[in-house]
Amino acid sequence: MAKVPKGFLRHYVLKLLDEQPMSGSEIMTTISKRTEERWEPSPGSVYPLLSWLNDSSYIKIADFLAEHDERHPDFDETMEDSGPRFRGDSQLPEEARELFRSLRQVRRSSRKIFDNLRKDYSADVVKEAKAAVDELITKLDVLAEKKEA
After folding, report:
1. 84 and 117 share a domain?
2. Phi, psi of 146, rounded to the nearest 5 degrees
3. Dist. CA 4–CA 8, nearest whole Å
4. pLDDT given at position 92
5. 112 and 82: one domain?
6. Dist CA 75 CA 96 (whole Å)
7. Are 77 and 118 found together in one domain?
8. Which pTM does this prediction carry?
């Protein structure tokens, strides 16, 4: 196996995804074929990278699935040769899909706050962010109980 420089997989995956949309298994197969099997990245390196790229907004896994395949990115634990499967949500109304997009945006915004605090800590920002998150949690808990009742 070839020794690959640290960080190269990220660059190469972004290059491949710029060429065309691919699943994790397609990425691994393409890399193996293009390097004449001298480099075969493992699922343990590709799938966490794809998750990180999606969370960091470098790629849009969920948006691609919603537009092209009528599948929702709810992970289904069953695995097959081609990788994880996703449960369908094509029957959900647009408002529900908008909710999923909003929740992903909350996660991205939270990550930005966290990253900014690591660079430049501010007790005021922590206090404001915690209050906003606590308010959101309280409202979501009320909504969750309405659905359960």
Report:
1. no
2. -60, -40
3. 7
4. 62
5. no
6. 17
7. no
8. 0.44
pLDDT in tens, 73-113: 444 433 333 443 333 444 567 787 788 778 878 888 888 89
Question: Distance between CA 26 and CA 109 in Å, rounded?
Answer: 30
119 & 135 share domain: yes
pLDDT band at 129 (very low <50, low <70, confident <90, very high): very high
Query: Which token pair is 105?
Result: 């945006």
pLDDT surpassing 70 at residue 32: yes
Q: Do both 70 and 106 map to the same domain? A: no
Judge whether 17 and 69 are in contact, CB under 8 Å. no
Query: Is the residue at 2 inside a domain?
Result: no
**pLDDT score of 34:** 92
In a domain, 142, yes or no: yes
Q: With beta carbons less than 8 A apart as the criterion, state whether 23 and 83 touch.
A: yes
How sure is the predictor about 1, in pLDDT bands with cuts at 50, 70 and 90? low
Which of 61, 133, 66, 122 shows the shortest CA–CA distance to 97?
66
Number of helices and strands (H, E) in the chain?
6, 2
Residue span of the structural domain in which 38 resides: 8-88
